[in-house]
Amino acid sequence: MTLRLGRYLVREVAGLYLLGVAALCLLLSIDLLSVMARFLVEHDAGALTIARLLAFKLPWFLHLTLPLAVVFSILVASGRLAKDAELKAAYAGGVPPIRLLTPLIGVGAVVTVLALGINGWLEPWGEAAYQREIQGFLYARPPAATQVDAAFAIDGVGTFFAARLRADRDDATRAELTGVLVVLADGRTVTASRGTWDAITRTWTLEGARVTAAGDSQGEQEAGTLTLAFPLESTPEQALMRPALQTLTQLVARVGDLRDAGGDVAEARFALHRRLADASSAVVFALAAGALALRVRGRAAGLGWTIALVVAFWASWTLTGTLFDRGVLGALGAAWATPVAVAAAGGGLAWWVATR
User: Fold this and answer.
1) What are the domain boundaries of the chain?
2) What pLDDT was estimated at residue 169?
3) Helix 266-293 and helix 47-83: axis angle, to 10°?
4) 3-state SS, one letter per residue, for the chain
5) Per-residue pLDDT tens over the stretch 111-123
6) How far apart are CA 59 and CA 50, in angstroms?
């Protein structure tokens, strides 16, 4: 009986889940179009262009809607069952409420796997295509990727700094350096106004370089064109690519490369763990919403709790991102704070359901 009731509950949830995903994606589409309306009108964007932009943004919409729709579907479905006294009949028939939580967690686990694939690989592809479409309105050629205040500390070699690092549009293995300062492992300091990073030869070639020996701040010497070993595994294109455009595999590699090079890994680490955490939100939402749903009294209560949980999630998700940007929270804390809090709340609710 419990197995049959579990399958029945999953079918109820599945239909509402698809409806929830569609409704939330529609809301996000309307929000995006309202923000971009003036830009699209000014550039005379046609219906086909707008449709492409929305299609490219769909993986990002799903990034948010897949876990949130779990809350909606579970609470509304359980509210309907409670209103029609079906849950009460099941409890009266000897089915403990906690037994019905297992299939709901299973639904969340399936959504988590799906979300991981979308967040990890489809979303970066969609964001790259979206950016190319937007840049087509503004530039004859897309602008070269640029980073300011780029620093790398390579063990046994030295610390490399460039005030501006700009990728070569025509060669992904080369980049232009401006405002260069290098402190070598032997204590020498090298400065140059400009130079080139070549990822094939793994070198920085500096023009008009000046070299100061260790401990001799007054003994600066002209070195002309100077080539320094720069054994970094990444190419300029990989180092300068925005985390939002990288797959999970690329982000893992980037975090490792930046860590080995002594670079700032915070942004890449946050992007990596944010995607993992957001995907896992589906299963922890299923735990929390499922435990709560088995005690709701009707459809109105289910809908009310859905709104409350979605608003709380959105507020926490936005706040933690802002706190990371301002340096208040670290990458891991900011990425995982929301799902960990939901998991703790869900565990407490599940214990309450099991002991009542």
Assistant:
1) 2-139+267-355, 146-240
2) 82
3) 30
4) CHHHHHHHHHHHHHHHHHHHHHHHHHHHHHHHHHHHHHHHHHCCCCHHHHHHHHHHHHHHHHHHHHHHHHHHHHHHHHHHHHHCCHHHHHHHCCCCHHHHHHHHHHHHHHHHHHHHHHHHHHHHHHHHHHHHHHHHHHCCCCCCCEEEEEEEEECCCEEEEEEEEEEECCEEEEEEEEEEEEEECCCCEEEEEEEEEECCCCEEEEEEEEEECCCCCCCCEEEEEEEEECCCCCCHHHHHCCHHHCCHHHHHHHHHHHHHCCCCCHHHHHHHHHHHHHHHHHHHHHHHHHHHHCCCCCHHHHHHHHHHHHHHHHHHHHHHHHHHHCCCCCHHHHHHHHHHHHHHHHHHHHHHHHHC
5) 999 999 999 999 9
6) 16
Topology of domain 146-240 in CATH is Arylsulfatase, C-terminal domain (3.30.1120)
Predicted structure pTM score: 0.85
Question: What proportion of the chain, given as a percentage, has pLDDT over 90?
Answer: 53
